[in-house]
Design brief:
The protein has 406 residues and is an all-alpha fold. It is 75% helix and 0% strand. Helix 14 packs antiparallel against helix 15. The longest helix has 37 residues.
């Protein structure tokens, strides 16, 4: 399998790319509109003590499915994998009003994870296909704009629908958004050269297909930085309510709007200055954001912390993916991207479980739950500084060797 790289000056912002961004928006809005309201919904079902599982079960299935989505992306094609991920959102959203027991809800959250296990993997590989490596960070940042818009509007819309109508109305609207994403994807052209027909044999995963070895450093960085996402997704609804923020989705809106703005401003930064230096600043920003969030006790402080955290996530997401694709072989893009997404799911899932265990529905424990991801972001920054130093030493060594006179 081969991949033909586009020329450096080849345009990628065309109608097809725009469709994919809009599909990302609808997909993201579909599942994110539920996030601020699901803790309350689970409580209404009698499962308040299982709040930490809302995110962790979702991410567990997403992580399990990544090796399969990565292999299918590299064999069957980018578009079919994206369509499958969006279809899962349609089906699961329609089943929430039907499975109304605590066990049924948790089972559905588990299978809902297939959606993010498939669609983002294929989307990132698609983005890398259509742009020259010198603009990879820019292109993946542009694709992420759709996700960011959906993640900002979705939670606001979800909370509005629950307050004004009902949980079931929110679930139905979520399904309609996901269906719109599927419809758009049927009009996207495939970018994988010579895609294969699907067969059950493709689902047989060998040991060396679970994780791409070139992705170790990006995966470690992703794991450490996305722990905060699991914490924020799990605990920010309760924090918002405790400070008097009626619409629980407002935190996510501020969070993702900041993420979106930084991508507009610094979309080309990692292409110009390097992946690692951008990630160092992203990690530092996350440390500051988590410290502010740890001691937030007013609506203003919560909003400020959401904005700072959004800036960090907006910098690190597309940059880590661009770094991943830089390091891997073109024919293994799906596997490499899936490997880093496995780390993302581990980070979010462990963040959700551990923060729920620390919190235990006691507001005085929020400070400890929010400080932990700040410490992990600091560890990521230290590692990135070490890797950058080693890269500079290798670069200087090569420069010295090749500049020696004959």
């Amino acid at each position: 399998m081969t991949s033909t790289a586009p020329a450096a000056d080849a345009p990628y912002l065309n109608f097809q790319f725009g469709l994919l961004i809009f599909s990302n928006f609808l997909f993201s809005a579909s599942f994110s509109m539920m996030i601020p309201e699901l803790p309350g919904y689970l409580t209404s079902l009698g499962g308040a003590e299982y709040k930490g599982l809302i995110i962790s079960l979702f991410t567990l299935m997403a992580g399990i499915s990544r090796p399969f989505s990565g292999k299918l992306t590299d064999t069957v094609g980018r578009v079919p994998v994206m369509i499958f991920g969006s279809l899962v959102c349609v089906i699961c959203s329609l089943l929430y009003p039907v499975l109304t027991s605590v066990s049924g809800f948790l089972l559905l959250r588990f299978f809902h994870g297939f959606s993010t296990g498939f669609k983002p993997t294929a989307t990132s590989a698609y983005g890398a296909d259509v742009v020259h490596e010198s603009r990879r960070g820019e292109a993946l940042g542009a694709l992420a704009i759709g996700y960011s818009l959906g993640s900002s509007i979705g939670p606001l819309a979800g909370s509005y629908l629950v307050m004004g109508y009902s949980y079931n109305t929110m679930f139905i609207v979520s399904a309609l958004f996901a269906l719109g994403s599927v419809t758009i994807l049927y009009n996207i052209r495939e970018t994988l050269p010579n895609p294969q027909k699907f067969s059950v044999n493709i689902l047989h995963i060998k040991k060396d297909e679970i994780f791409d070895n070139t992705s170790v450093r990006p995966a470690i960085t992703m794991l450490l930085l996305t722990f905060s996402i699991g914490v924020v997704l799990t605990l920010s609804p309760d924090l918002s309510e405790s400070v008097g923020m009626k619409n629980k989705g407002f935190f996510y809106a501020c969070y993702t709007i900041a993420s979106l703005l930084i991508r507009f401003v610094l979309g080309k930064a990692s292409d110009k200055h390097g992946r690692i230096i951008v990630l160092i600043w992203s990690s530092f920003t996350m440390v500051i954001g988590m410290v502010v969030l740890s001691f937030a006790h007013t609506v203003t402080m919560v909003i400020i912390s959401a904005g700072i955290l959004g800036l960090s996530v907006g910098m690190n997401g597309p940059t880590i993916m661009a770094w991943t694709v830089d390091l891997c072989r073109p024919e293994n893009r799906g596997r490499a991207v899936a490997s880093v997404y496995i780390a993302l799911e581990l980070g979010i899932g462990s963040g959700a479980i551990i923060s729920g265990w620390i919190y235990q529905n006691r507001l005085d424990r929020l400070v400890y739950a929010f400080l932990l991801p700040g410490i992990l972001a600091l560890v990521a920054m230290m590692l990135l500084l070490t890797w950058r130093k080693k890269e500079n030493e290798v670069r200087e060594h090569h420069k010295t060797v090749y500049d020696l006179p004959e």
